[in-house]
Give the backbone structure.
Amino acid sequence: MLTNLKLQLLHMTWKHFFTSSIGKKLIMGLTGLFLILFLIVHCGLNAMIYFNDSGETFNHWAHFMGSNLIIRVMEIGLFAGILLHIIQGLMLWVQNSRARPVNYAMNRAPANGKWYSRSMGLLGTLILLFLVMHIYHFWTPSRLGGIAGIHALQETRLGAEYNGQEVHDLYAEMLVVFQNNLWVVIVYVLGVIALFWHLLHGFQSAFQTFGINHKRYTPIIKGLGVAYSVLICLLFASMPVSMYLRWIK
């Protein structure tokens, strides 16, 4: 399959690559793998709140990630990757919907695939809405200042100290957002649930796009995908819940 894929790519122009079905799937696979790696880094950084040291470790690395020039440049690539993943995903969803204008006559899960594999467009939309709220709450205040919970934040702590400089206290921002807003915690947990189902299909699908589909390796990839999806999403969901319940202070 990899040989056939290479032959098809060799005969493609850039226009065909971005408009053809195989080109869209390759872009989805590449950006999907990139985002899978990003989630590992992002989750690892956020999990530092569990040091329960009033956010000292978390704020240290959060400031490093926000002030390092190389990482800031990579951040632009991250947003570009997310945007490209969303656009190509929507295009594939529309294309598949047009190819199958009538719903399945019978809901035969083994024949028609898992429900979440048929609902990637819906799950992706829910994740997009969750992502907008997440950026509003945390990325915007740490990069641009102000916005979410800033007045409450000013009443608690003006900022954290890093190398003798006062910086935005992202840990305190998390406490403000999650400890005082149950509805936000619920929305975050629902967003992570949508992410779980999206990853459960997307992990294996990304590898399958590149022809890694073999009776020996596919079960291993499937198992890794399930383990990855469960671990990442449990960690992400536990953070707002732990802060709301005051397990972390």
